[in-house]
């Protein structure tokens, strides 16, 4: 697979992988997961490298890289679990929405502090009755006599919303009579009065955390609108395409480590007088999973390459997200089988990979939604 990348791209991926091994470590990622602790220390280290600003234009304080550079970073950061990569990826998606849709004042307020690691972002779309169907959003906002927005409602499964100094990009309904054009994105600091955020005891996302949010007459100023009033759906579409491409890179990075972990164990573990790798059934399982990972990686790189060229790639991004997440799940599940009883111990890491893999087929659009997007792109006139 290394030959698919340019020498510069491979060097960059190697740098991120080496950083994960030496500066972050699998032990740290494991500890954050076991203790349900946000990885503040690691986040600060990544910010110090300037990596939070890879996609940010140079004139806004970033390094002006492209989505391919970013996806390679996601692949490396996802090595020891998607939850860790999530703490870096999720804030970037909102930062890029501010770059594309925000006012200059919003850019001045938020972007450079984000690149330096002083603030974080989270995005909130899902509600108890609105998940894949964002048009079912019920959390509503209206303007008072001062022009401020008053928000009421409830949100679910918002990643990283409890982390310190986090600004939530929240999708709300601002026009109850316009189903499609009545959605707006508001920027809400997570310490705003009237905002209650609870970290949920979910199967995955132990470190970054996923939350429920309650809003009781939460007030934010008129200029908290990201983009224009009624532009929320457009912003979400832009957000999801970037998200699907990059998270798929993190899935591939973790899937590769799941295969590597199982392969190391298969060579070390002896049964019936020989290493279990010598049993054909395990050889074939590992060979099939490595093939899956390589195929998923190529799908990810294709989507990232198209995006880096400035092309729209909703179909390709959905294919990468679908196959990357399903590959991670299969590799982790087979890894559990190969490691046997030891796989159930946190120190083996495989149980964490499996937990995160289950969430990967749901968050950012379920596998079923990705298949629907792909199917919609298949037209008779194209064959």
Give an overview of the whole structure:
The chain has helices at 7-24, 26-35, 40-48, 67-77, 82-101, 104-115, 232-268, 280-308, 314-339, 350-360, 367-376; strands spanning 120-124, 140-143, 149-159, 166-173, 183-189, 195-199, 210-220, 225-226, 270-271, 274-275. The protein has 383 residues and is of the alpha+beta class. It folds into 3 domains: 2-119, Butyryl-Coa Dehydrogenase, subunit A, domain 1, CATH 1.10.540; 122-230, Butyryl-CoA Dehydrogenase, subunit A, domain 2, CATH 2.40.110; 234-378, Butyryl-CoA Dehydrogenase, subunit A, domain 3 (Up-down Bundle). Helix 5 runs antiparallel to helix 6 and helix 8 runs antiparallel to helix 9 (314-339). The longest helix has 37 residues, at 232-268. The radius of gyration is 21 Å and the shape is globular.
Based on the model shown, name its key terms.
3 domains, 10 strands, Butyryl-CoA Dehydrogenase, subunit A, domain 2, 383 residues, four-stranded antiparallel sheet, 15% strand
